Amino acid sequence: MSRRKMETWMLVAVFAVVAGVSGFFTWPNYAEASKLTVASGTLDMKIGHLEDVEADLERRTRALMELQKGQEMACRQVPDRPDVANLMQHLSMGVDGHTVVDQTFTVRGRGVRAEDARFEILPLVVELETTFDNIFDVIRRVEQLKRLVRVTSISMNCRDVDFKQSKPTLRASIGMDVVYEQSDTGGE
Length: 188
Description:
The protein is an alpha+beta fold. It is 49% helix and 21% strand. The protein is built from three helices and four strands, in the order ααββαββ. The protein has a four-stranded antiparallel β-sheet with strand order 1-2-4-3, with helices on one face. The longest helix is centred in the N-terminal third of the chain and has 72 residues, at 3-74.
């Protein structure tokens, strides 16, 4: 074999090895790289979408917190029990015999619930014999409560007194509805 022929065969063998390596190793890896590039693009799109969703979630969470703050400021709480003792303590004034002559809290009946209502209402009456300022103070205290209590009626009448001798007092009856959400005790 001549040297020229040998070089030709060597060159053909090198091309065959290069073609074999390309066919068995490079081409499958290139095809796999193409698939991975497509998958990477899909994942990048999903990550971008996920970032958008996370930003939207964060924005909505902030909006929800602002709405909850607004709701807390605009709405009264409805407790799960009437807690009349605490309410009486908050509304009561010290009886001193001069400006506050008498003060009585009376619960009228039991909590009433309409058929499909969630809330129960406990009627409460505060009877006072005191000055107008103190009666007005009791109503202001009801307004300042964080829980829902409705003033349903106010009735006042004046005692016959000598206004020159003492400070005039009024007999007042303030009707209230103590609203609460009774939790169901039965198993549904």
